[in-house]
Amino acid sequence: MLEELFSVSGETSRLAIAEQAAALDGQVLDPTVRAFVLALANDGIDSDIDWIQTIATVVAKKAPAEWTDDDHDRFRQELVQQVASFQRLVALHADRRVAGVGSDAMRLTVTRADGSEYVRLVGVDRAHRDAGENVLDDALARLTDLIGSPARAQQTLLALLGERLLPAPEQDAPTEERRQHGL
Predict the structure, then answer these.
(1) Domain range spanning residue 49?
(2) Diameter of the chain by CA atoms?
(3) Pair 129, 91 in one domain
(4) Residues 75, 43 share a domain
(5) Using an 8 Å Cβ cutoff, are 86 and 79 in contact?
(6) Rounded to two decimals, what is the model's pTM?
(7) Does any domain span residue 32?
(8) Do 1 and 58 touch, CB atoms closer than 8 A?
(9) Which of 78, 99, 120 is the last residue of a domain?
(10) Which residues contact 33 (CB under 8 A, 6 or more apart)?
(11) Is the pLDDT of residue 162 over 60?
(12) Which of 4, 24, 34, 61 has the most CB atoms around its CB within 10 Å?
């Protein structure tokens, strides 16, 4: 199981994982993710086997000694998801420290239909939050009147903002028309 954790996380040592997890102490609100992070950060366990069994118990919500084959399969799937959440949190907090962004920061990933992605750390400073929320509420109300659905209005604004976050598509990228004409 230790090899699975290292493989999924991309790390090569228990110490590296534990240090990353310890840096998130007190920063994780989601109870499931917090339990996973605390298990990763637990440096009071002497052996790697006991450490990974603790993590496996947290992830599977059942001690490995009690697992069935189905439990082991679920553990593998859940481990991938938990590690991905952990890695996103580590990246968000690292980005926040570098950028000096306040506690209202988010790490957003926008993916185009072609699979290209753009990741950006965004935040709202406290001085502009109220004004921004007022403008957003007005825009949502106007768009809801036009579209007829508050949920669709929110999705439309989110999609439009997402497009604006993305850099312009490569001008030199071959289009279908260019490919057909060998350009």
Answers:
(1) 2-99
(2) 66
(3) no
(4) yes
(5) no
(6) 0.56
(7) yes
(8) no
(9) 99
(10) 82, 85, 86, 89
(11) yes
(12) 24
Percent of the chain with pLDDT over 70: 78
pLDDT for the residue numbered 179: 39
- The predicted pLDDT at position 38 comes to 94
Residues 52 and 23 in one domain: yes
Rounded-to-5 percentages of helix, strand, coil across the chain = 65, 10, 30
Q: How is residue 53 written in tokens?
A: 């069994």
Domain boundary among 79, 99, 119: 99
71 neighbors 60 (Cβ within 8 angstroms):
yes
pLDDT category at 55 given cuts 50, 70, 90 is: very high
Q: Judge if 10 and 76 occupy the same domain.
A: yes
**Which two three-digit tokens encode residue 34?**
């917090």
SS3 75: helix
